[in-house]
Fold this protein.
Amino acid sequence: MAHFPATPSAAAATGHRVSPSPRSSASLPRRTTLLPSIGAAGGPPSRSWRGAAAAVRAATGSDNKAASAGTIINPNDVPVLSFSEVAERLGTFQASGARNQNYMAMYSSIFGGITTDPSAMVIPIDDHMVHRGHGVFDTAAIMDGHLYELEQHLDRFLRSALMAKIPLPFGRSTMRSMLIQTVSVSNCTQGSLRYWLSVGPGDFQLSSSGCANPALYAVVIESPSIQVPSGCKVVTSSIPIKSSHFAVMKSVNYLPNALTKFEGEENGAFTGIWLDDEGFVAEGSNMNVGFVTAGKELLMPRFDKILSGCTAKRVLTLAEQLVADGRLSRIISRNVSVQEGKAADEMMLIGSGILVKPVVQWDDQIIGSGQEGPIAQALYDLILEDMRSGPPSVRIPVPY
C-alpha cells in the first residue's frame, strides 16, 4: 500500500504533488441552513418486485459466502488490527479480484495528493457523503488522451454543489487543474474521470455543522473498450421519481436510480424509465431519453424536472447536422406522453456511459420496426467522432 505523508509539507519533502490548502470560494456561500426534507413525487402504479424478497432470502446465506471468500466471520475471534495490518489486508482484497474495474489513480483532499494504489483509494467512514448522502458528483470521459466536455461537466458540478449547500474547498481553476493532473498521473488514455464534492468528514450527525473541511475526491477508471450501440428493452419504473429539486441536482443520492436500474434488469430489460408527476416521460435510471417521430422530429423531454444531461445536450447540438442533410425535420424539446413515446419510429437512451443506445421495446410495445434505427446510429457516430476529433471547447488534451 502506498504511504501518505501526514502533512502537505511532508509530502513536498518526499517529492509528492501537493494540493493547495483548502479555501472557501467566493462563488458559494458558507454553510448556513440545511436543505429542506426530501419529497418524492408519486410514480406510476406499483408492480410486484419479486427480486426484493429473493434478495432478503439470499441474505441468510451470506455468512457461508463470506467464509468461502476468506472473510473472518467468527464473532468470538474478530482481530484488532494495526494500520499496517489494515493496509496489508486492503492490498489482499484488491489482489483478490473482487473489483471488476481498473482504478488507475485517485486524488483526495483528505490526504492532499494522488495515489495509484487501488487499495488506498478510500474515504473516511464519517464523511457525510457516506452516511448522509450530502455530496455531489460528476463524470468526464477520457478519449484518446483527451478529457471530453470537462468544462461542461464542471459547470454542472458547481451548480449541483451550490444547490446542495456545499462550500468549495478550492476554486474552480484549482479543481480543474487537480482533475487534469490526476488523469495525467494515471496514464489512462481511455476511460472516465469521476469526481465528488462532499461537505466532508467530521461526525455522524445529521447537520453538517461539525464538518470543518469540505472534501474533493476524484478517481480515474480505465475502460479500453467502447460499447457498440445494440438495441435494448426498457420497462416503466415503479420506483418513485425524485422531486424536480433533487432530480436536476447530480447528488450522490442515487438509491432511486439504482433501484430503477435493478428493477429493469430483473424484468429482463436494460433499465427502467421514469415518468414525471404528470405522467409524462422523464428519464432513465442515469440517462436521458430521446425519440424520433413519424415526422422525423428528434424529440426529447424538457430538462426542467430532470437532470440536464451533458451528453444529451451535445447530441442535440450535433443533431443539427442531420436536420441540414434532411434526415431529421427538426429538433424539439417538450412534454412526451407514454402513448406518443411508444408510438415513435425510434427510441433511444443517451448518456456518457452509453453514448446513444437504441431502444427496441418498451414494456410489451415494440418500438418502430423492432430494430436499431438509423437516427440512433447516426447520432452515436456523431458523438463518438466528436469525442475523437471535436473542437477544443469539448476536448482538453491531458499532459501525460
Summary: The domain at 100-225 is CATH 3.30.470.10 (D-amino Acid Aminotransferase; Chain A, domain 1). Residues 374-389 form the longest helix (16 residues).
